[in-house]
Amino acid sequence: MKTAFKQSVITLAVTLASASVVGDVSSLLEEVMVTAQKKSTTEAAQDVPISISAYSGDKVEAMFAVNLTDVGLTAPNVNLTPLATSPGVANFTIRGMGTVSQSIPSSDPAVGVVMDGISYGTIFGVNTDLFDLESLEVLRGPQGTLFGRNVTGGAIVMRSTRPGEEFEGKIKATVGSHSRKDIMALVSGPLNDNWGAKLAVLSKDRDGLWDYDDSLNRSGRQGDAESLLIRPAIRYSNDSMEAILIAEYGDMEGEGAGTRNWEIDGVQIRDPYEASESTQGNIAESNLEWFNLMLETNWELRDGQLTTVLGYRDLEQQASSDIDGVFDQSRFEFGRGTGLDQEQTSLEVRWAGDVTDKISLTTGIYLFSQEYTYSERRFIVNAFDRRGVSTIEHATAGIFAQADYRLSNSLALTVGARYSQESKDAEIGVIGDPNAIGNCASQSGPPFDQSEVSLSDCVPALVDDESWSNFSPKIGLTWDVNEDVMAFASYSRGFRSGGYNVRFTDLSFVTPNPSSTPGPYNEEVVDAFELGIKSTLLDGRLRANLSLFHNQYDDLQRTALNANFTQEILNAATATIRGIEFDATYAVTDNLVLEASWGYLDPSYDEADFLTQTTGKSASSFDFTMVPENTRSAAATYDLALSDIGTLTWRLSYSFVDEMATDDFNRQRVSQYELYDASVKFTNSDENLTVSLFGRNLKDEVYFDFAFNLVGLRSAFLTPPRTYGVELTYEF
């Protein structure tokens, strides 16, 4: 593997003929402006003393990234895989922390996702199509001070384009493999001296990505998908203030990823690289629909800016999945249908500016509330149809402040803190409650119906409420070594709320000595230490960054299988995660830019009773779930001027993800994999027309993001094969 990686880097560095600076190379060298520190103005990513991977909207398009999963492959120690069983649901980890291998909406995100100032309240509806982006920031490490939903892994911050001061538009059409057909249109510009507006629309449609196992005698392919996103915006500004209203409607429908089952009781029963969905109707299907509304105002106040961000989100998803992938129901069959109805509102009010010549301050309040109802049906071996519904009401209030004090011309001190108060009211319905009646009762037969998850007869088995509070400080030093090099060191605390398990199936909690309960479980806390260097060298041609971190977790939340083989959310462990991250961008010539990143993780459990009591092994002998030890990426972009005709831009990229354990007990692992992507783009001399040919996973690598081994059954979930297409873009 090391030899293959070295050869790929050498290939990228082949010297090509030089020409004038044109095309995508120049955009790669431009600094991405970020909002990570919530200052009164945006800052260059290289000037921010935190570990951040920043992408302009142009770079996201140049990567032909479909969703956040594709972006995550290029950042060190970032794994943004989707949940296999439910499209659009995040299975994200950053620096080893995430809500992995599960789709329980009541488990608060460890990796927060913020879209236009709206912090998403659950992991559902997060990994959607990327388009119309001004910037995308991946903040690596706990975010405990400035971000509304306190997170212990990291945050992804996306900002859509705003209406500009000049009229402009874009039309983009894509056709590709698997009958892919995309169309995107954008119109933006001023209405008069004070008002501006924008409308962006994306429509996508494709056939399935995977063949069925021959023995199924099924036509077609698994994984059809179609989506529609509509994003209008209107902006008002005058000499002292600016206000922008952004709405977003999204609808994603499709089959999602199917299941590959290849082994039962140690016997390989079929090719592990074909879909083996059940013939009894348990094909993975999903319907995800959402509506966002965000109003942001910015007022000049004293020597700073007063910002308010009011957000609203309404989301519904119904999904079904064939969990086991066994089409012989006489042996095993496990299908699941789920429904989520979520509504949230949030308000952030903050002021950022200069208090004195030496002190800058960001301070504010954050209010958040959400309510969601989760319903689930489980169909097992044509004999059991277990059902349940739960509802959570969740409220958060926080006050925060962070100040930068200039100790000298080269040294600055950062001090910050956040106080958070969280409360949850829970009505938990047990999946498979034998006391339930009507539609909610556990039944034998009829066959599983994935279209029905609204179960009006379900009643809660537990009604409870709990609250949690946390004080999260931060202290840091930034040293400007010289004009080209900055070093920083920091300590911070992150916090993830406690809660309840809305996928609870163990009835023993009603007895005097329960083996497990639906909650509450306690908050998760991390103390994070970091050292970093950011440098811009060789007259701006080289940007190289290095970070080292040590994170100590207490009351680590884990979703584990209990003695009854049901999922239980526990404060299961204390743990330490150490790591190294490196990323660089180097302009070899005026026309050739190389990019590279490397991440290394060393996670270990200090204590984990749920592992040691079950296996008798020490906690430190277990690997973390879905955490690769190494991640690497490399890319080369080359611009070739074609006289007065235009520009050809060539791009080749490579990514590597190490092997991973896919469950806490390490019963199943997925192998390491490496992906190669490439594209060539022609841009005319007026720079308003481009034609691109692109391909992803060119080696057609067969790899898995998730797999499991349960009662002798080995199954895995499909990942995209080689895809390719042609894209035409016209700007006006």
Provide keyphrases for this structure.
732 residues; mainly beta; Maltoporin, Chain A; 22-stranded antiparallel barrel; five-stranded mixed beta sheet; 5 helices; 38 strands; 5% helix; 55% strand; globular; disordered N terminus
Short description:
Helices cover 5% and strands 55% of the residues. By secondary structure, the chain is mostly beta strands.
Overview of the molecule:
- With 732 residues, the chain is mainly β.
- The protein has one domain: Maltoporin, Chain A, CATH 2.40.170.20.
- The chain is 5% helix and 55% strand.
- It contains five helices and 38 strands.
- The strands form six sheets. It has a 22-stranded antiparallel beta barrel. Strands 3-9-10-7-8 form a five-stranded mixed sheet. The protein has a four-stranded antiparallel sheet with strand order 17-16-37-36, with no helix packed on it.
- A hairpin with a 4-residue loop joins strand 24 and strand 25.
Q: How would a textbook summarize the main sheet?
A: 22 strands, antiparallel, barrel
Poorly predicted regions: 1-22, 445-451
The rounded distance between the terminal residues' Cα atoms is: 46 Å
User: What percentage of the residues does DSSP assign to strands (E)?
Assistant: over 45%
Radius of gyration using CA atoms only: 25 Å
Q: Specify the structural class.
A: mainly beta
Number of domains: 1
CATH superfamily: TonB-dependent receptor, beta-barrel domain
* Integer average pLDDT: 86
Number of helices: 5
CATH fold naming: Maltoporin, Chain A
Instruction: Compute the number of strand runs.
Output: 38
What's the multimeric state? Answer: single chain
Helix content: under 10%
**CATH class division:** Mainly Beta
* CATH architecture tag: Beta Barrel
What is the overall silhouette? globular
